[in-house]
Design brief:
Layout (H helix, E strand, L loop, with lengths): L12 E2 L3 E5 L6 H10 L3 E4 L1 H9 L5 E2 H5 L14 H8 L5 H9 L7 E4 L4 H6 L4 H6 L4 H11 L5 E3 L2 H14 L2 E2 H29 L13 E5 L11 E4 L11 E4 L5 H14 L8 E7 L2 E8 L2 H11 L1 H4 L2 E5 L5 H7 L4 E6 L4 H8 L5 E4 L11 E6 L2 E6 L11 E2 L7 H14 L7 E4 L4 E5 L5 H18 L11 E4 L7 H9 L3 E4 L6 H11 L2 E4 L8
Parallel strand pairs: 2-3, 2-5, 3-4, 5-6, 13-14, 14-15, 21-22, 22-23
Antiparallel strand pairs: 1-7, 8-9, 10-15, 11-12, 11-13, 16-17, 18-23, 19-20, 19-21
């Protein structure tokens, strides 16, 4: 490890004399250039940025004039020069640095504003390989890193927020303080790290490397939160480059700030409701503690919500409601009848929004679309000293995928219920059992250490829901039972039969499949294997 030179302490106050500006997004550039010039700051710039500053009537030095070398190689080489990096890296109060700067005619640069080539936007816009490569900035990150390393003397800005802080400091004090420059340096290194992460991730995809030797996940802060999962934990919410409709990009129309648990539960609810095509039917999902407690489809959102609520009205209190269509007034009137934490929809009618406005604490979100359940992607989970990464579960079971293994074949209605139940089970914490009938869940058993207990809990929920509706029979009577993984023993299946299920859908693959099939035949059940397990932990 090289020892750090014995540099003099960095000054607390720097009055900038020269600024280097290089921007892809030139919004507000003319105003900033005029402000800096009016404060006596000389501006150095490149290419289109220099032209824009000149057009604004502000004096600007071309970087080619500074370096003595013209811009060349289609703009690839213009700032990679000692006159630039010496001006950024030179420690002005170190004798050897000051001597070198004087001998080579290097005048320090005290302020840098660079926003980098729009690589992420080029990728997001579907740019071809050549366009994406050409939008990989080289000189920009180098200058940002040089300025950030030498933050004792240079203030570096990579976004308008940082620049705003610098301009405010200049207007109030006439210069920048060391604490501000350190914070700006932190932000600068974060920006270049995120930029490099985006480039390396894209390149890995281009060469077909799903799991490269090094993987970096970068995020942009959306908000710091009052606390995390519990009040004694700190938390924050970040956005990645994954463009997917949901809670991250949602617009909050009203209500309190989203909590850590709100975000997690809302994401779970919206991902599940997106499994149901809005062109086929309205759908509603109610989630509590990351598990669905009621899922239903209907002709209208009002009907779908009512049917979902009937599945488990006790658990739905204080839950998250997600719908797959534009939220209307009729549905809003029903939703506000009980306490609800968050409501998320692709869009919301104005008259529906007026209904929710009476519930000041209810958080109302619009996501401007539904996530595609079949779109590829990756999901991550932290573990001690590392993280796990896997592809998103994009599995979808259809009737033609089913392998009927019992003597009795399921009816068309049972097949429909089986597929509905298995779709929901994919989004329930393992071990998961879901009873469903006529396009709604009848009972959900989640997160148990054995499958039998999940079947019992789901049956209990179905019985309680029936009692709340004044029905004689459990909602599970005549239902389809879905298990997200195979039944290792027949006991879980027999619990489902006792609850009133007439059909079972499960992955199969147990060493005791024959025993389970025999039990299903004896109970008169129809059972089909999917061949696909959908664990969720």
């Amino acid at each position: 490890m090289p020892a750090a030179p014995a540099f003099p302490p960095a000054p607390d106050f720097i009055r900038p004399k020269r600024a280097l500006i290089s921007l892809s997004d030139k919004t507000g550039l003319d105003e900033v250039a005029r402000t800096l010039s009016g404060m006596g700051v000389e501006i150095v710039s490149t290419g289109g940025t220099r032209a824009a500053i000149e057009k604004a009537g502000v004096k600007v030095m071309d970087v080619a004039e500074l370096t003595g070398f013209p811009e060349m190689m289609d703009g690839r080489v213009k700032t990679l020069h000692p006159k630039v990096h010496g001006a950024l890296l030179g420690v002005r109060d170190a004798k050897d640095h000051a001597k070198a700067m004087a001998e080579h005619g290097i005048e320090g640069i005290d302020l840098v504003w660079i926003d980098l080539y729009p690589f992420e936007q080029t990728v997001a816009g579907g740019g071809n390989f050549e366009a994406c490569v050409e939008n990989i900035d080289i000189g920009g990150p180098a200058m940002i890193r040089s300025a950030a390393k030498n933050h004792g003397y240079v203030a570096v800005c990579t976004d308008r927020a940082g620049l705003g802080e610098v301009l405010a400091a200049l207007q109030i004090d006439g210069g920048t303080g060391l604490e501000l420059r350190r914070r700006l340096a932190m932000g600068a290194f974060s920006r270049t790290a995120a930029y490099d992460a985006a480039v390396s991730s894209w390149f890995a995809g281009q060469v077909g490397e799903t799991w490269p030797p090094r993987k970096t996940i970068s995020g942009q802060l959306i908000q710091t939160m009052r606390y995390g999962e519990n009040p004694h934990q700190e938390a924050a919410f970040y956005r990645t480059n994954d463009v997917r409709p949901g809670v991250v990009g949602a617009r909050q129309l009203q209500g309190k700030e989203l909590s850590y648990n709100n975000v997690a539960d809302t994401d779970a609810a919206y991902e599940l409701v997106a499994e149901f095509d809005p062109a086929d039917s309205a759908a509603c999902v109610i989630v509590k503690h990351a598990n669905p407690c009621g899922v239903a489809v209907g002709k209208t959102l009002e009907e779908a919500y009512r049917r979902a609520l009937e599945c488990d009205p006790v658990s739905a209190f204080g839950g998250i409601v997600a719908v797959n269509r534009r939220l209307d007034r009729a549905a809003a009137l029903k939703i506000v009848e009980i306490f609800t934490e968050v409501v998320i929809a692709p869009e919301v009618d104005d008259d529906a929004a007026e209904i929710f406005a009476a519930k000041k604490n209810l958080r109302l979100l619009t996501a401007a679309g539904l996530p595609d359940p079949l779109a590829p992607g990756q999901v991550f989970r932290s573990v001690a000293g590392g993280f796990l990464a896997q592809s998103r579960d994009t599995s979808r079971i259809t009737a033609k995928d089913l392998q009927v293994v019992t003597r009795r074949k399921p009816t068309d209605a049972e097949v429909k219920d089986m597929l509905f139940a298995f779709t929901v089970a994919k989004h329930v914490k393992s071990n998961a059992i879901v009873y469903a009938k006529d396009g709604r869940t009848a009972g959900i058993g989640a997160g148990q250490m054995n499958r039998r207990d999940s079947a019992r809990i789901a049956a209990l929920r179905a019985q309680e829901a029936a009692e709340a509706l004044g029905l004689k029979d459990s909602l599970a009577k005549g239902s389809a039972c879905a298990s997200e993984a195979f039944f290792p023993f027949a006991d879980g299946l027999l619990e489902a039969a006792a609850a009133g299920a007439t059909a079972v859908i499960q992955p199969g693959g147990s060493m005791r499949d024959a025993e389970v099939i025999a039990a299903a035949d004896e109970a008169g059940l129809a059972m089909a294997f999917t061949g696909i397990r959908v664990f969720r932990h």
